[in-house]
Amino acid sequence: MDINIRIPILKDFSIERVIAQTNIKSDEVGNLSLNKDQLAQVIGKIDNWVWCIDETSNEGWLPKSSLKLSTIIIPHLGANIDFRITLTIKNQSQRFNFQQDLENFISNDIGIFTQIDWTDTLHIVFEASHRVISTKKILLEDFKAKKYIKCLLELTNFKRSSAVIIIEANDTEGKTQYLEENDEKSDGKLNPKLISGEILRYTCNAYGGCGNVYQNGRLSITNYRFLFTSSSKYDYVLSVPHYAIDNFSVNIGQITITSKDLRVIDYYVSQDVMAYVLDKYSELDGMHFCFDYYLAFYTSSDYGWSIYEPEREFTRMGAFDSGNWKKVDVNYDYKFCESYPAVLLQPSYITDDELRIIANFRSRRRIPTVTWVGKNSTLFRSSQPCVGVFYSRCKEDEDYMSKTQIKYIIDARPKLSARANKVRGKGFEHSAYYARCKMLFMNIPNIHKIKSSYEALKNITSKDDFLLLLHNSKWLNRLKSILSSAKAVADFLIYEKSSVLIHCSDGWDRTSQISALAQILIDPFYRTFHGFQVLICKDWISFGHKFKDRGSCTSDNSPIFIQFLDAVYQILRQNTSEFQFTNYYLLFLAEAVYSGKYGTFMGNSEKDLKEFSDKTLSVWKEEDSEFFNIGYKTSNLEILSVKTQISSLVFWDYFYKWNVN
């Protein structure tokens, strides 16, 4: 077998140091003394002892239990040093020379080794100014699992420091085949592949890194994304839409992007082109690409926007069969409640004036309204009541609850949080005034805690302590709370034949999650491909989930919809044949939310989307064979079963997406 080996980058020169946590005094030969908070540099370690050198060049052993260890990166430690690395396999040697690029060192050399086996050993000799400063051995079979290895070299003879090198190995047969599959220009420059509506603004040579993917290639800035192009099949890991960027920072020769889909991407570019890169990026706004994408695309006349029509959906449910419900247009111009849909389903007896009185008693005027009608029960949703610390009441609101026979009020919040809202003039229904209703608090955290759990999942799939990190994130605990709440609502509606009202604070985050999940459990239509789209349009978009704000770079950012898709996946995984769509469709929607390609997720309400419907594409126009479940079978189950204990939940594929292993 022949293989190609590259070492594209040498970086992160660092030293390890200790800080004494207490006074360390010792008269024993070979031991070192330090005062509290005094610094020393680490030279070596053994068991519970560390060999250090202090600021006056005294050396000796220190007890690890009395020290705080830390690693300090020193960017210019290797400045102006002639570095080279020699790799040897069997009797074959190849030398790699490095050129300084700010604090990093880049090599474009490729070493070819012939007639070797995966069982052979790779010997590394690291030199600085023709003096050996480190050696290391790596088994070639380590490259079978992953093409890139991040290797730490202890530079004991070079200022007692360490450095990181990235080693890439490919068998030449596989590499040649892949290069043939990529469309390269005759001048050797990689040709970026653009999608419809995408316009190239600037391109330059760059080195990219994310997780365990490290590549030399071309960085292109388009009106849609940072697009990385190389000869690797993992370029997608290093390419990110502008709309998906959560944080953007610049250092000397380095751009670091933290994305909303849990990536941290580093681009290393020459300092003389950095100004051009930043200039082109500053001209762009990720939200604008959905308009360019629309102009470049040809599809049917409505572009997917007519998938949901309220009256048609309520008719499908049989809402108008009994005469108990009617369509009202009190919000036809969105002035009654700008975050609610134009068409509302309300009890036949109710008047517009009564609805206006109730609106004044509900946070943000989000009145109780019907979202699903069954044979023997009805599902309502609203925001919290404005009761305050003095237990204000509204007779019309109380009558509404009584006449519609709502038995359960599901408050998604922890009771303590709901009670705290009373100080701000809001709160929850007082049991003395809603005697026929039973209050249940679901203890689901707010958007900020969900965001914290989500961000704790960043890069954990490549960590050895993955299970501990997953546990500490509390992501599965939050998922369990949502699923348990939805299951309870479904049970009340079907088994008890009792009507239910769901709300949280404003009724557009946790309320949408519980309401939509409960309907998936009880209504087979919402488990079809088309029905699932209708459900999202109805209970998320039209009822005012703030897709724009939740996908922004502000403090309102939170992955509420991603969490909902994860919960749907848990139900789908336990009831695969009951769903017409697959996990691939859920993954597609999760990516689409942060892609900036579709107008569907660009607004905070149905009202907002009016300005997008004739100027952008809807995500509902997308169809692919992978989205459809060939094993789908309709059944007569009244309600889907779902196990909600943490031991029955699994870590969703979405979070493995950027781990190429």
UniProtKB/TrEMBL annotation:
The active site is at C504 (phosphocysteine intermediate). CDD domains: PTP-MTM-like. GO terms for cellular component: cytoplasm. SUPFAM superfamilies: (Phosphotyrosine protein) phosphatases II, PH domain-like, SH3-domain. PROSITE patterns: PPASE_MYOTUBULARIN, TYR_PHOSPHATASE_1. This is Myotubularin phosphatase domain-containing protein. It comes from the Eukaryota. Substrate binds at N446, I447, C504, S505, D506, G507, W508, D509, R510. The lineage of its organism: Eukaryota, Sar, Alveolata, Ciliophora, Postciliodesmatophora. Residues 304-656 form the Myotubularin phosphatase domain. InterPro entries: Myotubularin, Myotubularin-like_Pase_dom, Prot-tyrosine_phosphatase-like, SH3-like_dom_sf, Tyr_Pase_AS.
